Structures are given as C-alpha cells and as structure tokens.
Amino acid sequence: MKIDYVEFPALDFAQTKAFYGVAFGWSFEEWGADYMAFSDAGLEGGFRKAKVLSPRGGPLVILYADDLDVAERAVGDAGGEIVERHEFPGGRRFHFTDPSGNELGVWTKA
Q: Do residue 32 and residue 73 come from a single domain?
C-alpha cells in the first residue's frame, strides 16, 4: 500500500482556509459541516472538524487498499490495533494504531 491522503484536525474551518489559502495557495471543498478537502498541495488531503485536539489529534496519514478487509486483517496480524471503522459517501475506511501508538487510516472506494 502507498500513502494516498493526509488529514489534519481543525478547530475552525474559516481560520484554516484563511491560513492555508493565503500561506500556500491551497484550494478547498467543503463536504458538510465536519469535513473539508484541500487540493493544490502536492498531495490530496483534508481537514476533519475537531472540538479539541486530543492525543490522537495531529495529522492522519491515510493509505489506500483495493481490498479493505484483507488490509484490516494484515494490520491486525502485524500487531496493529483497529480503533475506528466507518463508511462515508464514496467508500469506507478503518483507523489503526501501530505498536508505537501512531494512528493511520486505510480506505477503499465504495
């Protein structure tokens, strides 16, 4: 699998857009009240709405898998801990922590 996407938590979308738009020239597309994608950054990514930044807060690196079930089994077999699963328009994904506690995500198209 390869890195496909990076997600950051954001407390305020208006401030986030203003900062990254002015500082780096990124473009944005909002997908409801809780998610905003960015482009023009060299790698696709997004900002997820956060009320507070938690220890699991920080950037979320997301991998792409053709078969999400196989990827989830491989992560578990290697010692990763699955911490979240969800579906969204266009696909589904799971999050896991590695043995050091880093959280990553793996997604697949619907």
A: no
